[in-house]
Amino acid sequence: MSKNKSGNAEIVIKKYANRRLYDTSTSQYVTLDHLRDLVKKGVNFQVIDAKSGDDLTHGVLAQIIFEEESRGANLLPVDFLRQLIGFYGDSLQTVVPGYLQMSMDNFTQQQEEYRSKVGEAMMSPQATMALIEEQTRRNMEAFGKTMRMFTPFVPATSAEADAPEAQAGTPKEGEDDIAQMREELDDMRAKLDQLLKAKK
Known about the structure:
Blueprint lengths: L1 E2 L5 E7 L5 E3 L4 E3 L1 H9 L4 E5 L7 H14 L7 H9 L9 H14 L1 H11 L3 H26 L7 H5 L1 H5 L6 H25 L1
Parallel strand pairs: 2-5
Antiparallel strand pairs: 1-2, 2-3, 3-4
Helix pairs in contact: 1-2, 4-6, 5-6, 6-9
């Protein structure tokens, strides 16, 4: 076993040219399903190229997601995938990973609460909307923190401070992106309303 950046022990998986995966902790060849089970159990592992030693963990985890999606476990909506693809090469590309990480960390920390609320949502459309709104609010807060980390503070000049726009409160950098996310939330709410009406 090796240790990751946090100092925690992790299993080393070697990937060979024939795409076979070798678990060095058990001295056995394993499959993607085995690695998926390790993830579900919270076991850390690193996948490296058996020849070059390059870290292949990111690609292998993405492959596991692809396999799960192809089996019908659709956790990633088509619209979300399109939006995600649209951020490649965008000026916000460096911000997106941090935002997604914080959103997922927040969701993971509150997962027991969400499980309980999802049970209620099965019976109540109002509970469903409340759950979506609460998660969106938390995501918006996380996004705001991320944007502040990437937005340098520029002191206003005396002339700018006296300007009517400054006194009224000019929009901060990143608010346009937040406004766009709110519009997307409204669209999602509308679609959910249609879905709930169709089930009645």
